[in-house]
Input
Amino acid sequence: MASNKNYIKSEAVYEDGDWWYYSPSGYRQRVSTHAAKNTNRMFVNGKYVPSSHPLHKPGRYKSLDDAWSHEKIESTKEGEVYAIVNDAWLGWVKVGKAVNADDRCNGYQTSSPFRDYRIIARLETDNRHNKEAEMHKIFQHFADERKGEWFKIDNVKAIKIFNHQTKTLFNEFKKELVDAA
Output
């Protein structure tokens, strides 16, 4: 069998004088070709990161911090603005920014023995720094109280704010498409 350590004997089949990998859809590919293709891909916590992503770096990483320095990550504009909650602090919602909200949430889990932080809303944006500042202003208006990036606001109201922002962005994008046509 091929020397790639990512494959175990049960995944590859020896046929026609070579080792073959069968995808779940039934597509057959040489193990050496499949393994070579995977060396150019990036996975963070098991999730595929496309090569078009500005932080793409081939390999398998537990978090973006394992792949890049904090400075490199912060210099990237595109990403997500998210709302995270934890039932230990009922009624409080954290609004933050990250290149990948799931990766950021996993980072929070290390500070909780119950791993009970969860993302209730997210918004993809081409400039997460500006969008986070805008969302903080909006949340400041609707929240009863603010402590840094944490806002005392009902979860449903927080989700509605994110949904409204998503609709607004979609309508702006739709208008750009119509104007371009």
Q: What stands out?
A: The chain has six helices and eleven strands.
